[in-house]
Structure formats: C-alpha cells, structure tokens
Write a structure and sequence with these properties.
Blueprint (H helix, E strand, L loop, with lengths): L2 H28 L8 H6 L2 H9 L1 H18 L6 H30 L5 H39 L4
Helix pairs in contact: 1-4, 3-5, 4-5, 5-6
Length: 158
C-alpha cells in the first residue's frame, strides 16, 4: 500500500473518531428529555448515558487498532505478527460492541417509553456494522496469519 493512501485512511480513521466523540458529547444536550436539564442532571443522573460512554470504549480501541494496521500497511509491514494481533483485537472489539448493544437493547426494552423504536433501530444498525467489521477482520486476520506463518517457517534459523 502506498504511504499516501495509508496516511489518507489514517486521517479518515481519526476524523471518524473525532466525529464519534463529538456526537457522544453533543447528543445528550439535544435529547428530548434533557432539553431543559442542567449539565449535572444530564451527565450524572442518567445511568444509560454512563453505560453508553463505557460501551464506546471498545469502539475507540478498535479505531486505534485500525490506525495501527494502517500504519503497518504504510510502512510495508502488513505481513507481520503485530498486524495480525491488531486485527484480532479489532475483531474482539467489534464482538464486545455487539455485546454492549445487546445489553443496551435489553435496558431500553425493560423501561416503559414511547420512543423505543429509535433506540432499537440504532442498536440494529450498530450491530450490523459491528458484524461486518468482525467478519472482515477475521477473514483478513486468517489470510495474514497464513502468510506470516509461511514466512516464518521458510526463514532459516541462524
């Protein structure tokens, strides 16, 4: 992969992370039930918001690992054990995001609300995206692992 392509994709990953963080910080202020709430009420009296922030940790960890994979690709070290490990971590992060979404959906469904559909739909979208990321990371990891294993098997011991 060309270094310029890797840098461009790293920039996209960073922009995605900044956008997601900005959304996490901005959205609670415009949510319907928080429109006239103080900052303390928004951030310290809503357990679901705290859960959403904790659940976002694997997302950002996965973005960091994607950044590392792109750095390996830019330095032409994609066929290394470190890249395989980063892809494995991306897969685990995607699976943990799915787990957090499932628990969040249970949380949403357990409370009486007039607006469950929006939360459920967002959960479905996030789950679908995480499944795609986990599947792609798994396929690429397996292919790279085969290449890395054959590379290290064919290297003579000194």
């Amino acid at each position: 992969m060309k270094k310029t392509s890797a840098v461009f994709l790293q920039t996209v990953v960073v922009a995605l992370g900044i956008g997601a963080l900005a959304f996490l910080l901005w959205e609670p202020h415009v949510e319907g039930r928080n429109i006239h709430a103080s900052v303390f009420e928004i951030y310290f009296k809503d357990p679901f918001l705290a859960y959403a922030y904790i659940a976002s940790i694997p997302f950002f960890a996965g973005l960091y690992q994607a950044f590392k994979v792109l750095r390996y690709a830019g330095h032409d070290k994609l066929r290394s054990p470190e890249a395989v490990k980063a892809l494995r971590i991306i897969r685990y992060c995607a699976i943990s995001v799915i787990g957090f979404v499932v628990v969040g959906e249970i949380f949403i469904m357990s409370y009486d609300s007039d607006d469950r559909a929006g939360g459920v739909f967002m959960g479905i979208l996030i789950t679908f995206g995480s499944i795609v990321v986990a599947a792609v990371a798994t396929v690429v990891e397996r292919n790279l692992r085969k290449v890395v294993d054959t590379k290290f098997e064919s290297t003579p011991a000194v």
